[in-house]
C-alpha cells in the first residue's frame, strides 16, 4: 500500500512543512517524513527513501542562517 501512496505523502508533508508557521503541524510533518523513511528502509524501497531524505534535507537550509526557523533546526 505504501508503494502506491508514498509520492502523495511526500508532496503533502513537504508542502505543509514549507508553508506552516505552526510548531505542532511542523512536528507532525517532520515525524511523518521520518516514519516514511523508516518504512522505505524496512521494505528496501531505495528510490523512495532517497526522495524522502532529500526532502527532509531541503529544510535544513544551513547556508541561509537569516531564514533559519525552529522547524529547520528540528529537521537537523
Architecture overview:
The protein has 76 residues and is mainly alpha-helical. The protein has one domain (2-75). Helices cover 75% and strands 0% of the residues. The longest helix is centred in the middle third of the chain and has 20 residues, at 23-42. The radius of gyration is 12 Å and the shape is globular. The relative contact order is 0.17. The model has no long low-confidence stretch (mean pLDDT 89).
Give the secondary structure arrangement, pairings included:
Elements (H helix, E strand, L loop, with lengths): L1 H18 L3 H20 L3 H13 L11 H6 L1
List keywords for this structure.
mainly alpha, globular
Put the structure in a nutshell.
This protein has 76 residues and is mainly α. The protein has four helices and no strands. The protein has one domain (2-75).
Order of helices and strands: HHHH
Distance between the termini: 29 Å
**DSSP, total strands:** 0
Instruction: Give the percentage of residues in beta strands.
Output: under 5%
Structural class: mainly alpha
What general form does the structure show? globular
Structurally, the number of domains stands at: 1
Name the poorly predicted regions.
none
